[in-house]
Amino acid sequence: MPAIMISALIRSTHALFVLACMAGCGFAFPTGKSHVGLSAISSGLSRQKHQAFELSRVWDKESVSRAYASYLELAAAYSRSGDDLESAFCLREAGRLSISLGNSKSAVSLLERSLALEQKGKNVDGEVETLAFLTYVHSSIGNFKASERYLKSAVQSLDRILDKNTLARASYHIGESYYARE
What we know:
Layout lengths: L2 H20 L17 H17 L4 H20 L3 H17 L3 H17 L3 H17 L3 H17 L3 H18 L1
Helix pairs in contact: 1-6, 1-7, 1-8, 2-3, 3-4, 4-5, 4-6, 5-6, 6-7, 7-8
């Protein structure tokens, strides 16, 4: 793949992160809508999720590793309780932290599991954010075809939420990567 195309794809990946944040898909906790009706277990899980979030903001390897392990535990607990969207969120966060820890293979696996749950639950915001991470991790390991595939999928998802401004910007960056091929 020509260097100019790789450069354009990497810029597209960075732009997708920015665009996902602009579309309201930023790196924040879910709204909690999926917590409706859950018992005291949910309250305990929410506290643990908040602790994992706080740990993940401290950028030393030990804290990130602890947050990663906590998000994996939370994903399993939410899955057992039937809360697929919260499980997807925790898998996505574990995937993000796995990238930070330098474990791309684990990140891809976790993010793909998250994506499947986001798509099942029709959570387009979470889907776009997960696709952005998948785009990033694949581009960082040199798997540019997969990266471009995830980028295109993110654009399609943005189209479904009818955010025309963000969609136009993301489409521009995809076009830029095609232009770079010539």
